[in-house]
């Protein structure tokens, strides 16, 4: 019998501490695609790795969202020339390889294999790991009436984990489809997924996530909604 990533003793300790309960799934989810830009999804960039499988899995999830009009929000890390070359961003002193992620460069472009719809899907530009830190993402999700966040993207141990932590701290239950997140190395990714599953969200299969997204009721057509209002069916 498998003891999981860290063994039976660790699993028993976490269960005793009361971690690992399932999250509540709402009926109005949003998909947040974290930093699947070319600088992270292509191994030709120093910051990147070949995340072709993650891109393909995320594409499948996005395509399931379109018929039921589940919002898809993309994020990208991008620095101005001054930020990239200076010392104002403390993170870049720790991770100088990310100085290549300059506004307007190919490195910060959303991976072209993803079915992003410019002018329809929102793009959040960020400077830190979490998609919530210093951005309007929480307000956007609230404004859209969303009650659950499905997080995809890269890297699992960095920006994905940080985004998941801030999502649940902002009041949103979180799902993370394992196939839709990727990293540069397996060890850090596995550790991050273990931590997410224990404390912050549910790590699920792609099939589970696709089924959940596809089960969301499609919004009523505008004409039908107006007719319902005239009949007095809505308040």
Automatic annotation (TrEMBL):
Pfam family, one: Isochorismatase
InterPro entries: Isochorismatase-like_dom, Isochorismatase-like_hydrls, Isochorismatase-like_sf
Occurrences of domain Isochorismatase-like (ranges): 30-208
UniProt keyword Hydrolase present: yes
The UniProt record lists the keyword Hydrolase: yes
Gene3D superfamilies: Isochorismatase-like
Keywords attached to this entry: Hydrolase
PANTHER family: ISOCHORISMATASE HYDROLASE, PEROXYUREIDOACRYLATE/UREIDOACRYLATE AMIDOHYDROLASE-RELATED
The protein's name in its UniProt record: Isochorismatase family protein
């Amino acid at each position: 019998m498998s003891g999981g990533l860290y063994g039976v003793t660790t699993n028993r300790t976490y269960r005793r501490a009361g971690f690992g309960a399932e999250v509540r799934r709402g009926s109005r989810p949003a998909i947040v695609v974290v930093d699947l830009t070319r600088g992270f999804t292509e191994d030709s960039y120093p910051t990147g790795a070949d995340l072709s499988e993650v891109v393909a899995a995320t594409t499948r999830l996005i395509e399931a969202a379109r018929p039921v009009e589940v919002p898809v929000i993309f994020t990208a890390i991008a620095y101005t020339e001054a930020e990239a070359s200076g010392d104002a961003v403390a993170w870049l002193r720790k991770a100088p390889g990310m100085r290549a992620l300059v506004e307007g460069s190919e490195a910060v472009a959303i991976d072209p294999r993803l079915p992003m719809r410019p002018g329809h899907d929102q793009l959040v530009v960020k400077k830190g790991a979490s998609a919530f830190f210093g951005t309007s993402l929480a307000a956007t999700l609230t404004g859209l009436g969303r009650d659950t966040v499905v997080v995809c993207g890269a890297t699992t141990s960095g920006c994905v984990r940080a985004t998941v932590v801030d999502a649940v701290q902002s009041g949103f239950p979180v799902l993370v489809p394992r196939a839709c997140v990727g990293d540069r190395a397996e060890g850090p990714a596995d550790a991050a997924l273990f931590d997410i599953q224990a404390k912050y969200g549910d790590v699920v299969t792609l099939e589970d996530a696709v089924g959940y997204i596809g089960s969301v009721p499609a919004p009523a057509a505008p004409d039908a909604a107006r007719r319902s209002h005239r009949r007095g069916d809505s308040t």
